[in-house]
Amino acid sequence: MMDNRFATALVIACVLSLISTIYMAASIGTDFWYEYRTQSPAENMSEAGRSIWEEFVSKDADEKTYTDALFRCNGTVGLWRRCITVPKNSHWYSPPETDMTTNCISFSLSDQFAEKYIEPGNHNSGTDLNRTYLWRLQFLLPFVSIGLMCFGALIGLCACACRSLYPAIATGVLHLLAGLCTLGLVGCYVAGIELLHRKLPLPEDVKGEFGWSFCLACVSAPLQFMAAALFIWAARTNRKEFTLLKAYRVA
Description:
Elements: H1 4-29, E1 34-38, H2 41-44, H3 47-57, H4 63-72, E2 76-77, E3 81-87, E4 100-106, H5 109-112, H6 129-162, H7 168-199, E5 206-210, H8 212-250
Antiparallel strand pairs: 1-2, 1-5, 2-3, 3-4
Helix pairs in contact: 1-8, 3-4, 6-7, 7-8
């Protein structure tokens, strides 16, 4: 028989786990981890700006090329895609427009594991190992986090089928590891952005800030930690009380 305290703790832990999973999935799938804001994106789409757009959509675009475009055109960056804001009609013979549209380009799998250079865009400058591995980790860690939580949920379902709280300890440990992965993801992303901006400083009229996708990941981590604490507490305390009650009945 389960005490109401433990049942309540498990329900709260499951709700926290579900919310953190939704937040994490939304964070991974959206493109607003970092946002650049310039005062006049339309003016930047001059003749030079159009050539930058053409290079931005090119498969051969290097890090410096697409980062310059992000600076000039109100760009946003996610874990999977990069986006810039451009006029809907950007032909050279068209008058300036205020009607803007957002166009996005996905990072390929080879882009995710590509080497980062000490001087972005200069392949002869040598590999920047710090930025290279930070970029790879920020790509892998969210999937590890989601996988751990899903595996923990599977163990939780098995625990319900067995009518036992003890396997919930494993669910709590997996959520704890998932929270550490999410926290590591946030740290890797912040460090990667800071290192990039040291190499490519922001222009004076451009402001950069972390977006709401990044905030969702930041919120997801403490939710995972709280769910882990509740799972582990409920399982251990229930097991301890059951052991004491069994000993009392034997005596």
